Amino acid sequence: VIMVKSREELTNKIMIAKVEKGLTWAQVANAVGQSKEWTTAACLGQMQMTKEQAEIVGKLFDLSEEGIAWLQTVPYKGSAGLPHDPLLYRLNEVILIVCKCFRL
């Protein structure tokens, strides 16, 4: 059972378990009953799951009760800082620079 103390730690544990178990996001989404995109975002800490959804994910990834509880908490969306993916980083940069021009 994986013990977790923060949402970031939970995300890391889920990613490790996903690779170790050879699961795809589509398989996880099918088990949860949501879209692949929503499920991925929820597992990566950007959405709040219901108790039932969190318990399903908890079983798939062998999460502790703390991990299941974290999946049910309201996240601070977009709080992960600057993205590391080059495309997302540039998109973020464009939004930060260009949006100010649109508001003037």
From TrEMBL:
GO cellular component: nucleus
Classification lineage: Eukaryota, Metazoa, Ecdysozoa, Nematoda, Chromadorea
Name of the molecule in the record: Cyanate hydratase
Species of provenance: Toxocara canis (Canine roundworm)
InterPro entries: Cyanase, CYNS_N, Lambda_DNA-bd_dom_sf
Molecular function, one GO term: cyanate hydratase activity
Gene: cynS
PANTHER family: CYANATE HYDRATASE
Domain Cyanate hydratase N-terminal: 7-75
Origin superkingdom: Eukaryota
